[in-house]
Amino acid sequence: MLKVENLQILRNQKTIVKDLSLELAKGEKIAIYGPSGCGKTTTGQAIAGITDAQVKGQIWFYEENRANDAWFLRKHVSYIFQENALNPIMNIGKQLAEVIIANSNNIPSPKEIQELIGQALSEVDLPESFARKYPNECSGGEKQRILTAIARLKNSPLVILDEPTASLDQIRRIEILKIFKKLQSSLILITHNPYDIKELGCGKILIMK
Ligand SMILES: Nc1ncnc2c1ncn2[C@@H]1O[C@H](COP(=O)(O)OP(=O)(O)OP(=O)(O)O)[C@@H](O)[C@H]1O
Ligand SMILES: [Mg+2]
Question: Domain limits at 59?
Fold first, then answer.
């Protein structure tokens, strides 16, 4: 479903990522592992269409090269990180409602939307009251859960998790990994943590230097 070939990423003419290739089947999970600064986040964000760096090479999605189609990549890839992509001036309920409406064939009624928001939050173990909160009122781990709920609502074929447990204690780490395991999508896990690779069941590991 995803094939990255000869990916090269540059910033100000400086090569940050050189000649990276990877392949991911539908539902498959791969870990990207490597030291700080080696370009893991840069790679993930290029695949998600959310980088401002210069990207060369091919990013095949269902047999089509989408390397220069950030709009397509953004639509199909959910990128989950702690300093996250939630809208700071919209409450969580409204953000979930937007995704629900965008992904429904018939526009649901306000009551149905309310129910779907409650359901989406409960799937990531958050109470319904989170719908009224703003992102700055949520912890890093809570924001990850909300992004996970959004990825589930969008039915994203590919989810990229960037250091998803880096700042969590052991209990929260196990909880969030359990939630990520519910994702049906193909998964790229960016991590420093071998425990997460094992726990999420990544069948492949790409080591970057
Ligand atoms: N916006 C940016 N502008 C300029 N340089 C950047 C930018 N983002 C990243 N870099 C540089 O690109 C290189 C790769 O950074 P990247 O964030 O991809 O590393 P990483 O492997 O994710 O590291 P970490 O494990 O610390 O998160 C680093 O040398 C970094 O300083
Ligand atoms: Mg990083």
Answer: 2-207
Does the Cβ of 66 fall within 6 Å of ligand 1? no
Residue 197 tokens, joined = 């690779």
CATH code: domain of residue 39: 3.40.50.300
pLDDT in tens, 67-97: 999 999 999 999 988 666 788 999 999 999 9
11 lines ligand 1 (CB under 6 A): yes
Average pLDDT, the chain: 92
Residue 130 has pLDDT above 90, yes or no: yes
| Counted domains in the chain | 1
Ligand 2 center–CA 109 separation, angstroms: 40
SS3 58: strand
> How wide is the angle at C-alpha 136 spanned by C-alphas 132 and 139, nearest 5°?
95
Question: From the CA of 39, how far away is ligand 2's center (Å)?
Answer: 7
- Quote the pLDDT of residue 82: 67
Q: How far apart are the first and last CA of the chain?
A: 25
